[in-house]
C-alpha cells in the first residue's frame, strides 16, 4: 500500500510541471481570422479560385510574401555607401601641405 501511494505521489510530482508548458493563448477571434484572410488576399492569395490542385503552393507562397513584407517593414531601405573616420592623415604644426 505504501508503494502505491509513493508511486502516485512521485508520478503527480513529475507530471505537475507539464501543466505549466501548456499553451495559454486564447483561440483566434472572428475578427482576427478575417484580418488574416484580408492580409493573405493583399499578398496575392485568392481563396475563390477554382484551381484546387495548387492550393498548398498558392497559400504558402502568399504566406511567404506576407512574412517577407513584415520582416522588411522596418525603418527604411538599406543605404549603400562607406564610412570613414577622418583619422587617415594627421596634420602637424607647421605642415603647410593641407
Automatic annotation (TrEMBL):
Keyword check for Signal: yes
Signal peptide (UniProt feature, chain positions): 1-22
Keyword annotations from UniProtKB, A to Z: Signal
Protein name: DUF4148 domain-containing protein
Lineage of producing organism: Bacteria, Pseudomonadati, Pseudomonadota, Betaproteobacteria, Burkholderiales
Amino acid at each position: 500500500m505504501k508503494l502505491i501511494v509513493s508511486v502516485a505521489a512521485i508520478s503527480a510530482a513529475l507530471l505537475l510541471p507539464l501543466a505549466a508548458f501548456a499553451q495559454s493563448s486564447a483561440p483566434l477571434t472572428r475578427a482576427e481570422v478575417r484580418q488574416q484572410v484580408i492580409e493573405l488576399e493583399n499578398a496575392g492569395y485568392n481563396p475563390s479560385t477554382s484551381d484546387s490542385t495548387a492550393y498548398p503552393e498558392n497559400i504558402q507562397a502568399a504566406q511567404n510574401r506576407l512574412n517577407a513584407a513584415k520582416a522588411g517593414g522596418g525603418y527604411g531601405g538599406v543605404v549603400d555607401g562607406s564610412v570613414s573616420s577622418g583619422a587617415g592623415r594627421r596634420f602637424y604644426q607647421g605642415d603647410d601641405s593641407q
